[in-house]
Amino acid sequence: MIFKIPNIKTINFFSKKNKVSSEAIQRLDLLLLTIETIDLNGIQSIYALSNKLRLNDHLPNKVTIWKLRNNNPMRKSFINNKIKLEEFNALTKITVEMSKYLYPYIREILQSREVFEDNPLIWNDYKNRFMDLINERFNINSMKVKKLLDPSVNDEILIKCLLTLALCVTNMGSQNLKTSLLDF
Questions:
Q1: Domain spans of the chain, in order of start
Q2: Among 27, 99, 182, 184, who pairs with 165 as Cys (CB 3.0-4.6 Å)?
Q3: SS in 3 state form for the chain?
Q4: What is the number of alpha carbons within 13 Å of residue 184 lying toward its C-beta?
Q5: What is the Cα–Cα distance from 48 to 1, expressed in whole angstroms?
Q6: Measured in whole angstroms, how far is the alpha carbon of residue 122 from the centre of its chain?
Q7: pLDDT (tens digit, 9 = 90+) per residue, 170-183?
Q8: What residues have CB less than 8 Å from 166, skipping those under 6 apart?
Q9: Contact 74, 139 (CB under 8 A)
Q10: What is the mean pLDDT of the chain?
């Protein structure tokens, strides 16, 4: 499926065999990493939510979730297994539901960034944890990962991730997320 965004560019989101593009996987994995940054038991919460949402057919265990996320070329343990559309949709649904649960924290982090001079603690804790997770899980020799780690641009990326998650809390959360993954 090819989406055209007027006056911007054409983005190939899904391949011909219902596989998801690596760019969409990268973006979704960054959002899931943002969720893990906020929720210290993130992977356990993601797995518990997958059971609650009855996504066991596509996400039967934590290892499966880990393997799907390792389709992100920025990861140290990158494997190119091509995520199926159903698996991508399951991860998207989990991201949306986790965003709803974490929305008060997302708002607080964004607000702390706006009034950074008054209270830098919350933003700095969030940013440091995110950077620690990037260093731990991603290939730091990759140019894309170096950009994530670059202090001159990573605030913008972090804010964009948080705002994307904040948009997911609406009734059209899944649709909003899929749209944002196109033009992240």
A1: 22-182
A2: 99
A3: CEEEECCCEEEECECCCCEECHHHHHHHHHHHHHHHHHCCCHHHHHHHHHHHCCCCCCCCCHHHHHHHHCCCCCECCCCCCCCEHHHHHHHHHHHHHHHHHHHHHHHHHHHHHHCCCCCCHHHHHHHHHHHHHHHHHECCCCHHHHHHHCCCCHHHHHHHHHHHHHHCCCCCHHHHHHHHHHCC
A4: 21
A5: 31
A6: 20
A7: 888 888 887 777 65
A8: 99, 103, 106, 107, 110
A9: yes
A10: 84
pLDDT in tens, 124-133: 999 999 999 9
What count of residues does the chain have? 184
Give the span between the Cα atoms of 31 and 173, in whole angstroms. Answer: 14
The Cβ of residue 102 has, within 10 Å, a number of other Cβ atoms equal to: 23
Gap between the Cα atoms of 171 and 152, Å rounded? 35
